[in-house]
Design goal:
Length: 220
C-alpha cells in the first residue's frame, strides 16, 4: 500500500472532508459541562450532568455510594436540548429561592453554562415554588436524565411497576416503606416506614428516583 501525503488524507473522490476536531478539543468537550443539577439531603444524592460532547451522566443513591449511568446523545439531540434551554428567559429569575429548609429537605443547585450566555447557578429546595422558566429548564434536565436507562450495579423497581397499597419498597438509603394509600388526586402516595415511625408523601412520577426495589407485595 502506498502511503499518501498528509495533505491528501481528507480528499475523497474529489470532495474535501473536513478534518476531525483536534484531540484536545474533543477531550475538552468530554469535560465541559452544559449543565449540572446536584440535589441532595441526608436521605440521598442525585446529580445529572450534560457534557458538551453529548454525554449525559446520572449519579444517584446514598451520598458516597452513588450508582452511575451514562447516555450518549446524537448531534441533533444535543442541538435540540440547547435550543430548549436557550428559549427560556432566566434573566429575571432569582438565583436563590426561599423555602423550607432542614436536613430532610432536598436542596438543589442547577449550574448552567449555555453558549453565548453568562454562566448562572440557581439554588432551590424541593418544596420551593419555582419561576416558570426555571421549571421548564428542569423539565429538559429530567427528560435527558430519563435517557439513562442502565445504572452500574443498580437496583430498580420492576419495569412497568404500578404501586398498590401494601407494597413494601426499599428507598435509596435502604429504609423500607409501605404504600399506605393514594392521595386524593391519585397523583401521589402516602407511604409509612416499616422500621421507623415516618410518613412520606411521594409523587408517583418521582417514585423511581427515591425507591429502588419492590421488597414484597400483599397477596390479594
Amino acid at each position: 500500500m502506498i502511503a499518501l501525503p498528509a495533505a491528501w488524507a481528507f480528499m475523497v473522490l474529489g470532495g474535501v472532508v473536513p478534518p476531525p476536531a483536534p484531540p484536545r478539543a474533543r477531550a475538552a468537550d468530554r469535560s465541559t459541562e452544559i449543565f449540572r443539577l446536584d440535589c441532595g439531603s441526608t436521605l440521598g444524592h442525585r446529580e445529572v450532568t450534560l457534557f458538551k460532547n453529548g454525554t449525559v451522566r446520572l449519579r444517584e443513591g446514598e451520598r458516597g455510594k452513588e450508582r452511575m449511568g451514562l447516555a450518549e446523545l446524537g448531534p441533533d439531540e444535543v442541538a435540540g436540548a440547547l435550543r430548549r434551554l436557550a428559549e427560556e428567559d432566566l434573566s429575571q429569575v432569582e438565583e436563590r429561592a426561599r423555602g423550607p429548609e432542614g436536613d430532610w429537605v432536598e436542596g438543589c443547585a442547577l449550574s448552567l453554562a449555555l453558549p453565548d450566555k453568562p454562566p448562572r447557578t440557581f439554588r432551590y429546595g424541593r418544596y420551593d415554588a419555582l419561576a416558570l422558566p426555571l421549571s421548564r429548564v428542569l423539565r429538559v434536565v429530567d427528560d435527558l436524565a430519563a435517557k439513562v436507562v442502565v445504572m452500574e450495579g443498580a437496583e430498580h423497581l420492576p419495569e412497568g411497576y404500578e404501586p398498590h397499597p401494601g407494597d413494601v419498597l426499599k428507598r435509596v438509603d435502604g429504609q423500607l416503606f409501605e404504600v399506605f394509600e393514594f392521595t386524593v388526586d391519585h397523583k401521589g402516595l402516602e407511604m409509612r416506614g416499616v422500621n421507623q415511625p415516618l410518613v412520606l408523601y411521594v409523587l408517583i412520577e418521582q417514585l423511581r428516583q427515591e425507591f429502588v426495589a419492590l421488597v414484597s407485595r400483599r397477596r390479594p
